[in-house]
Amino acid sequence: MGLSTHVLDTMHGGPAAGMQVSLFTTANGQASLVKSFTLNHDGRNPDGLLYDNDSLKKGTYRLVFDVKCYFASKGVALPEPNFLDQVILDFGVAHTDQHYHVPLLVSPWSYSTYRGS
User: CB 3.0 to 4.6 Å from 111: which of 11, 64, 106, 115, for a disulfide?
Assistant: First the structure.
């Protein structure tokens, strides 16, 4: 099924619509941008999967979530500097025949992630 992500705003209790996200491949300490996108009304990539099974490769990846700009755009009064600026998740894909779902639960002060289904 490939690779997907979903972001929930735990401060407001809903999807993080409008958050900017970037996907990178990583190797030997270097990151290469694959795509950047804005989450849709459901907190997901508007184009669906980030990679389908045919294009997902074994290796390491990075998702970067622009948390600070998202909460600022929602009118949240943030200190300078804010506690969280960007949330950077580095993860590995070992089995390309499986689905890798990378959800993020986030507020201006905390986040949680896991490998979903």
Answer: 106
- Residue 64 sits in a domain of what CATH number? 2.60.40.180
Q: How many CA atoms lie within 13 A of 84 on its CB side?
A: 20
Q: How does pLDDT run across 12-71, given as a tens digit for each residue? A: 999 999 999 999 999 998 999 999 999 999 999 999 999 998 999 999 999 999 999 999
Q: Collect all residues with Cβ–Cβ distance below 8 Å to 81 and sequence separation of at least 6.
A: none
d(CA 26, CA 24): 6
Domain tally for the chain?
Answer: 1
Residue 99, domain extent = 2-113
